[in-house]
Design goal:
This protein is an alpha/beta fold and about 650 residues long. It has a domain of about 270 residues: MetI-like (MetI-like fold, Orthogonal Bundle). Helix content is about 50%, strand content about 10%. The strands form two sheets. The chain has an eight-stranded mixed sheet, with helices on both faces. A hairpin with a 5-residue loop joins strand 12 and strand 13. Helix 6 crosses helix 7.
């Protein structure tokens, strides 16, 4: 955020009654912690046995203890140790909680799930039991109490961090950083921590109050601070023996604990309100298949019959993506095969849930456990992506991913220039200055006006179209050979959509870059792509040249998608054409042709036998028993809106 925005937020925090009281009390406690030992230490430890257990007087405002020491000054001096121990416990608890919460990122999904299970077990135990258990483990004394209280409080912070980290890891800019080959620790410190810092500060402020109370409780029980040192809990314990004749000896340090705890809690509450922060199975292996040659018409999803004209960039054969489910393995992508040559543009279209975006994520190596990616072949510029040792530098420089939502494609905590420069620094070894200069140059290349000024701005200062241009510019920081554009224009208005598509087309022609475009707009696909892959229920049901999409489609589903797009000749008085029924649920794919339940041409054979993907003499592919048969696609009147093919 900008400095002015941050200043406005803090002014809003301090202008509220809760903020003024909370920060006022906290400032008072901190000042006492700093000055009291310097000013009144000698008076707090001065022994006067003649005045032992004296009541309140003008010389001793709240009386004296069993050795005649002034309790008022002892309470003031104890502020430093009490506050210091609480802050140390809070810092350790947050550090441990952050490490545990970030385990899925640092250790991988499998170990992350084990750590998550451990967190769930620890959170289920009462906090007091954990404190007493760890107090025995770490031993009696201030040091042992610090670690005991910290370890007891760590599970709550771990649960909080686990939730927040998972939310950030699901955003597009983290996926983009992974594609760029950024390491796990750099992702944590650069992309995750800055975006969870504010809620962590809030919960740390509130948690410090709880830690202060817990520490006072341990010292009161004799497990915390030991003589001759003293904190508020120790003073309460010492004053307990004479509470009936000298109650202030125990009540005064207790009141100090309440005031300090209230200061932390009110401060955290004020920050939360001012910043708008809310308080606080086994995978079955894919069926084995024998790779089919491109011209094999015997079945299976053979790769495209059209060989890349100028060298292969991406070759996918029999790709499966599998996830565990309550009733067995779920395969949202089933045997997908295709290839893309240098300078070619291939589109994937289909309704929501057809598997097109997941196919792109599998190619970009962004499918994480428990998902499993399997294929007979998955090569990118000659490198096997399935050997587990795919070159991160190759992916970072040669593969670019443009995501659907430009708002989540960038880290809101960093300026645009450094975010683009990170790719060059990570993979090209450029200095900070040289990388930033290249970032400015790439912003200029994607037609961002005044790139020098824009590079110093934050993502929220960019419009949606400018952010999408900048995302494309980030992909051009290296030397991309393939751009995967996952519905890059969905969140943009029509005019900006055309500008972004023109930019992608210009980059493709100028730099001879291959393009894999996922889009819900069939008209756009026909305009800028060479070939179209139509997906339904996780597999390719037709592949054909984009120029033939309107007149040469053979599959009933492809024809229905085309017919569902209105044009200038659409009768405005007639109901819009739509595809009857609903897409197939990946968890319950029927026997036979998956589209049979919605297809007006389907017969019993279609419902019982799944058609193979057959390649014809022209290199087109189609999986349909009724391919090419006459089909009337007049407007189908339904009670629902037109199906969106995104």
């Amino acid at each position: 955020m900008t400095t002015s925005t941050s200043s406005r937020r803090w002014r809003r925090v301090l202008s509220t009654p809760v903020g003024m009281v909370g920060f006022g009390l906290l400032a008072l406690v901190v000042v006492l912690a700093v000055l009291a030992p310097l000013l009144w230490h000698d008076r707090a430890v001065a022994v006067d046995t003649a005045n032992a257990m004296a009541g309140p007087s003008s010389d001793h405002w709240i009386g004296t203890d069993a050795l005649g020491r002034d309790l008022f000054f002892r309470v003031l001096v104890a502020t430093r140790l009490s506050l210091l121990l609480a802050v140390c416990s809070t810092a350790i608890a947050i550090s441990v909680g952050l490490v545990l919460g970030a385990a899925p990122l640092l250790l991988g999904p499998r170990m992350g799930r084990l750590v998550g299970a451990l967190i769930n077990v620890l959170v289920a135990f009462p906090g007091l039991l954990l404190v007493l258990f760890f107090a025995v483990v770490f031993g009696v004394g201030a040091k042992g109490a610090v670690f005991a209280i910290a370890m007891a409080g760590a599970p709550a912070f771990a649960r909080l961090c686990q939730t927040m980290v998972a939310g950030v890891l699901g955003l597009d800019y983290v996926a983009a950083a992974r594609v760029a080959g950024v390491g796990r620790f750099r992702i944590l410190f650069r992309h995750v921590l800055p975006n969870i810092a504010e809620p962590l500060i809030v919960n740390a402020s509130i948690g410090a109050g709880g830690m202060l109370l817990a520490f006072a409780g341990l010292s009161f029980l004799g497990l915390g601070v030991q003589a001759p040192a003293y904190d508020w809990g120790r003073l309460m314990q010492e004053g307990l023996t004479g509470i009936y004749i000298h109650p202030l000896a125990a009540l005064a340090p207790g009141l100090a604990v309440i005031i300090a705890g209230l200061a932390f809690n009110l401060t955290g509450e004020a920050i939360a309100r001012g910043f708008g922060i809310p308080e606080a199975g086994n995978l079955a292996p894919a069926p084995a298949r024998t790779p089919a040659a491109p011209d094999d018409e015997s079945g299976a999803d053979a790769p495209s019959g059209r060989a890349p004209e100028r060298g292969g960039v991406l070759d996918v054969r029999d790709l499966h993506v599998t996830f565990p489910g309550p009733a067995g393995a779920i395969r949202p992508v089933r045997g997908v095969s295709f290839s893309i040559g240098r300078g070619q543009a291939v589109a994937i279209v289909g309704e929501s849930g057809s598997g097109k975006s997941l196919t792109a994520l599998a190619v970009a190596q962004l499918v994480e456990e428990p998902g499993r990616v399997e294929a007979d072949q998955l090569t990118f510029v000659g490198t096997d992506l399935l050997d587990g040792e795919a070159d991160a530098k190759l992916l970072g420089q040669s593969l670019s991913v443009v995501f659907q939502d430009p708002m989540t494609s960038f880290n809101p905590a960093h300026r645009m220039g450094p975010q683009l420069a990170e790719v060059a620094r990570q993979h090209q070894g450029l200095s900070r200055k040289a990388a930033l200069a290249r970032a400015v140059d790439r912003l200029r290349a994607v037609k961002v006006v005044d790139p020098e000024r824009r590079a110093k701005q934050y993502p929220f200062e960019f419009s949606g179209g400018m952010r999408q241009r900048a995302m494309i510019g980030m992909g051009l920081m290296g030397t991309p050979q393939l751009i995967i554009a996952d519905e890059p224009t969905t969140a943009l208005d029509v005019t900006v959509q055309q500008q972004v598509l023109d930019l992608l087309g210009e980059i493709r022609r100028t730099d001879d870059v291959a393009l894999l475009l996922i889009s819900h707009d069939v008209a756009v696909v026909a305009e800028i792509c060479d070939r179209v892959l139509v997906m339904y229920a996780g597999r390719i049901v037709e592949e054909l040249p984009a120029a033939d999409l309107w007149t040469g489609a053979q599959h009933p589903y492809t024809r229905a998608l085309v017919a569902a797009v209105p044009d200038m000749e659409t009768d405005l008085d007639a109901p819009l054409a739509s595809i009857a029924g609903r897409p197939v649920d990946p968890t319950d794919i029927p026997i036979g042709c998956a589209y049979a339940a919605r297809c007006p041409l389907a017969d019993d054979h279609c419902r019982s036998v799944d058609p193979d993907l057959v390649t014809d003499a022209a290199g087109n592919r189609v999986a349909c028993w009724r391919a090419g048969q006459t089909l009337s696609l007049g407007p189908t009147v339904t009670n629902e809106k037109k199906v969106v093919t995104s």
